[in-house]
Amino acid sequence: MKLRGRCLNPGIAEGEALVTSTPISFFGEIDASSGKITSPRHEHFGKSITGKIFVVPTGKGSSGGPNVIYSMKLHGTLPAGMIIEKNEPTLAAGVLTGDIPAVTNLDQDPTMVIKTGDYVKIDATNGIVVVASSSFKKGQK
Amino acid sequence: MKLTDEQKRMLDGDEGLGIQKCMDLLVKWGESFDAEKMAKVYSVHSSTNYCIEFLEEWSEGAKRIKCLSTLHAVFDPIFWIEKMGLEFEKIASVGGGILSTDVLDFRKRMNKLMSLGFLPTFTCAPYNVGNIPSQNNICCWVGSSGQIISNSIFGAFSGRESVSTCFAAALTGYTPRMELLNPEKRRAQLLIKVPAKIRTETWTEADYGILGYLIGGIAGQRNVAIEGLSPELSMDMLRMLLSPQPVSGAVALCKIIGLSPGALTLEEALGGKNPEEVIEINMSMLKETRSKLNSAIGKDVEVVFLGCPHLNLTELLKITALLEGKSVHPDVMLFIGAANATRVILNEAGFLDIIEHAGGHVINSCFGPFNPLIYSRNPPKITATNSARCSHYIQTSSGGKTKVLYGDIVKCINAALAGKWEE
Fold first, then answer.
1. Among all residues of chain B, which has the CA nearest to that of A28?
2. Which among A97, A111, B92, B231 has the fewest CB atoms less than 10 Å away?
3. Which CATH architecture has domain B5-183?
4. Are A70 and B54 within 8 A, CB to CB?
5. Cα(B185)–Cα(B168) distance, rounded to whole angstroms?
């Protein structure tokens, strides 16, 4: 399956997808040192986004998000890439600050068609997302 | 995006690697929202919470910022740890070193910001201390209360900024003209009607906070117009009406008909179109909202927070008069949030002595998302405040463990003196 969208930040990335149906605020919801989701109300509470292709509907919340993302960069805990259904200023600023390859505003809703565990390749520069089936685990490309 | 020669030079690195990085961020950010050009920034209001690595990397080669840039409320470890004796754990998990307890690190970060020309205002209310935009001025401000106030009271153009885009705006003097910086994106979409039978003429600031918290929850990200409020509302009431709207929702622009710039009439506020939705406020809606803000069952207050957003001189004079010749109850701590410059005026006037003799602390900290007491090892169980914004953040930051008693300044000060909350 191939999705097409807009480049938010250029680059190439691949990895296992972690898909969330709720808007994300890096500030207050992600621990920079471990890359784990710390909000108890989040569907993926306790899971790490490090090295994943993090798929989110949009951003929300505090303007402090880019500080958390920059801190994740220093700790080496950033996601490999991001797919954002609807672009949002604070999240976009964070993605750019952390230099995470990211695609936004796609032709299909990525939070619906991509499942957690799918292996996903992003060519953010050209706005292309390629999704393998969920049976393709990391290392079995 | 179409750039001027000056902007192109910054992007090409002619002014150093830091400014190149800043301009690259602003160009990519703007292009992702279809901005066609940059706008000249009137003022920046910046976070203080950058780590030193960010500050050095993103200002490499830069000498000075390019527009008025004030600094946000701050976590001062010298006050909270050395003076108040607060203990903290899990500091690193609070947003990338936000509440850094290291005094040397704190001084290093502040000195770096000030060497670039950022002003040590240390407040969430920059409009109280000289960062005052005029109508249509472009503002890049962190802090959602400042954003909605600059848009709705001053008629400035203030977008949904983040810490890094504000820093980049200060270093370059520009920001992409996108979202709320475009006049056509400023039309009110949701109309809130306050009927005459709701007697707002008797309301305190806490009542306006309840209305604001209710409106934010209804509006989400939409622009709001409110019909039925006095066009002569004071700044004290307006701040409490506006500041909760970005926490119960994500409102950045709320036009009070007859008062806000660009909203002298309802038609003007709506841009000549029909609103997407019209909601009439009733008493049961306000009662239900009040119960969300007033979550405590007990009456034994441990901490009183006033100053979210930071107080102005009118509010501080009122507090001084209430505290004069009295003492805060020994089991209660009273924290009053205000800018450094405001504190200097209070001190010169002799009012700071009155507050401090009574046992109150005037401090430049944030009592919103970064409330130091709530993140300390032993957070209080019952607090009191006159701010809907503060009540929201106390409850969400503590996971509901710290309860709030909610009422106006007079009730809060009386509770601080008596140690008990009286309805």
1. B95
2. B231
3. 2-Layer Sandwich (3.30)
4. yes
5. 23
Domain containing residue A7: 2-131
Hey, are the CB atoms on B54 and A38 less than 8 Å from each other? Answer: no
Compare CB distances from B28 to A31, A65, A96 and report the shortest one's residue. Answer: A96
Whether A62 sits among the annotated catalytic residues: the reply is yes
Q: Considering only the beta carbons, identify the residue of A67, A87, A88 that sits closest to B163.
A: A67
Residue A122 exposure: Cα atoms within 13 Å on the Cβ side:
36
Rounded Cα gap, residues B314 and B311, in angstroms: 8
Residue B279, H or E segment: strand B277-280
CATH fold for domain B294-418: Aconitase; domain 3 (3.30.499)
- Please report the pLDDT score of residue A48 as a whole number: 97
Residue A125 resides in a domain: yes
- The first and second tokens of residue A16, run together, are 């296992």
Give me the amino acid identity at A26: F
Q: Which residues of chain B have pLDDT under 50?
A: 92-97
Which residue's structure tokens are 């002595």? B353
Please count the structural domains in chain A.
1
8 Å CB contact of A63 and B97: no
pLDDT in tens, B24-81: 999 999 999 999 999 999 999 999 988 889 999 999 999 999 999 999 998 888 899 8
B399 conformational bin, left if phi > 0, alpha if psi -120 to 50, beta if neither: left
Q: Report ipTM (2 d.p.).
A: 0.94
Nearest-Cα distance to chain A for B411, in Å, is: 30
Contact B73, B370 (CB under 8 A): yes
What top-level class would CATH report for the domain B187-291? alpha beta
Distance from CA of B358 to the nearest CA of A (A): 35
B348-358, pLDDT tens digit by residue?
999 999 999 99
| Beta carbon pairs, A and B, within 8 Å | 105
